[in-house]
Design brief:
Structural class: alpha/beta
Mean pLDDT: 95
CATH superfamily of the largest domain: Ribonuclease E inhibitor RraA/RraA-like
Number of domains: 2
CATH class of the largest domain: Alpha Beta
Shape: elongated
Helix content: 25-40%
Radius of gyration: 20 Å
Largest sheet: 8 strands, mixed
C-alpha cells in the first residue's frame, strides 16, 4: 500500500459520489471497467449518512452451527489486528454460511466496538440488526440482509482476502461507498481521483445545462459533445 491519504484528501473523496469515483477511475485505464466494484446484493442501509471512505479491515464469519475447537478466531486478537491497520477503517466481512445471513455479526454492541476502533462502517454479504440504534450514532451498514438473531455467530479468521458482493477485497484496500454501492480505489491513483472526478463533472455539467436550456437542438448538442469528447 502507498502512503495514507491525508484527512483533507479523504474528505475530498467523501464529497464525490461513488458513480463519479467510478468514472474517474476509468480514465486511468488501470483495470477493466467491469471490475473493482461490488454487486447490488450489498446495499446501503443508511443512505442519508452520505459517503464513507476508509481502509479495509477484513474478516470471515459463520453462524449456522456453534464453533468447534480450533474453528473460532479470537475477537481480542481481531481487535488488535484492526488497530494495526490505517484509519479511518471499514470492516469488510465475508459470511461463509450457505446461504449467508443465518445470523448477524452486526448490532448495536459490535458497531459500538468498531466505532471505538475508528471504523466508520461495515460492508458485509451477511446480515445486520439494531438498525435504529446504529443509525443514531452514525455507523454505516452496507449489507445483503437485515436479520433478527445472531444465531451461533463467530469469527473464522481475519486479516486475509475476502470476497464480498462478488469483489475480492484485501486488507488495506481503499474503499469508497455510498447509496449507489461500494468500489475499491487503486492506491496508485488515489491522490489523483478527486481531480479527475472534478474534470468529469465539469464536462458533464456543460452537457446537462445545455440539455436543460431553452435553445436546445440536437445539432447543437452533437457539436457540444464533439467539442467535449473529440474522440467520440
Amino acid at each position: 500500500m502507498t502512503s495514507r491519504l491525508s484527512i483533507g484528501e479523504l474528505e475530498a473523496l467523501k464529497r464525490i459520489s461513488t458513480p463519479t469515483i467510478s468514472n474517474a477511475i476509468e480514465t486511468f485505464n488501470l483495470r477493466p471497467r467491469n471490475e473493482g466494484y461490488m454487486s447490488p446484493e450489498v446495499r446501503c442501509l443508511f443512505p442519508d449518512l452520505g459517503a464513507m471512505v476508509g481502509y479495509a479491515v477484513t474478516a470471515r464469519i459463520k453462524a449456522d452451527q456453534p464453533a468447534t475447537d480450533g474453528q473460532q478466531a479470537s475477537r481480542f486478537d481481531y481487535w488488535d489486528y484492526v488497530l494495526k491497520m490505517p484509519a479511518p477503517r471499514i470492516a469488510v466481512v465475508q459470511d461463509l454460511d450457505q446461504p449467508p445471513a443465518i445470523g448477524s455479526f452486526w448490532g448495536e454492541v459490535n458497531a459500538s466496538v468498531h466505532r471505538a476502533l475508528e471504523c466508520v462502517g461495515t460492508i458485509t454479504d451477511g446480515g445486520v440488526r439494531d438498525l435504529d440504534e446504529v443509525h443514531a450514532f452514525g455507523f454505516h451498514f452496507f449489507a445483503a440482509e437485515v436479520i433478527v438473531s445472531h444465531a451461533y455467530i463467530h469469527l473464522i479468521d481475519f486479516g486475509g482476502p475476502v470476497k464480498v458482493g462478488g469483489l475480492v477485497v484485501n486488507p488495506g484496500d481503499l474503499i469508497h461507498a455510498d447509496k449507489h454501492g461500494a468500489i475499491v480505489i487503486p492506491h496508485e491513483i488515489a491522490r489523483e481521483v478527486a481531480g479527475a472526478a472534478a474534470m468529469i463533472e465539469a464536462t458533464e455539467r456543460r452537457i446537462i445545462n445545455y440539455c436543460q436550456s431553452s435553445d436546445f437542438s440536437v445539432e447543437r448538442l452533437k457539436a457540444l459533445v464533439r467539442e467535449l469528447t473529440p474522440t467520440k
